[in-house]
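In this section we walk through a basic example: taking a raw amino acid sequence and producing a predicted 3D structure, encoded as discrete structure tokens. The instruction is simple. Fold the sequence below.
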Amino acid sequence: MILPIYLYGQPVLRQEAEDIEPDYPELHSLIQNMFETMYHSEGVGLAAPQIGLPISVIVIDGSVLADSFPECQDLKFALINPVLEILEDVDPVSRDEGCLSLPGLSEPVKRREHVRLNWLDENFEEHEQEFSGFAARIIQHEYDHLLGKVYTDRVSPIRKQMIKNKLNNISKGKVKCDYRTKAAKN
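The resulting token sequence is shown next.
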């Protein structure tokens, strides 16, 4: 089932997500619906807060980017209760990012290029893996959603001022999308 994407301004996008337990109701259906919603919206990642649930669940499929970013070739999984660790102390790299919750907007964001992620899969089996390059960027972007952050929180103060009107319009639903959305204000 395709779910509506909650747009910038929705309070759930500013909540810190809660970890879930193995008995979370209909978890497998939720994950399937999140993948379906992400694909329908042409995204490469989707966090549960983006569909209105303040829980620690993310789906990612970066394989469509593998031609440009080979590290994304097998980047497809569901992450439950992930814990992210930055593994480098070098300067972050700036790249443009977009977000399904901020349609029509793209801004340069500085992020680290190497991370370690610990998570549970949909069967609550533990995993740990290191990711680099654009794969690490996708993971950090989605992980931010679990912390109540969106990528525009990471742009420079000048850029924030420049996009303020666009953000206000998104929060009011004054944006065109090819997918279902739920705005904060009518």
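Looking at the output, two observations stand out. The two ends are 24 Å apart (CA to CA). The helical segments are 27-40, 133-146, 157-162, 164-171. In the next section we compare this with other chains.
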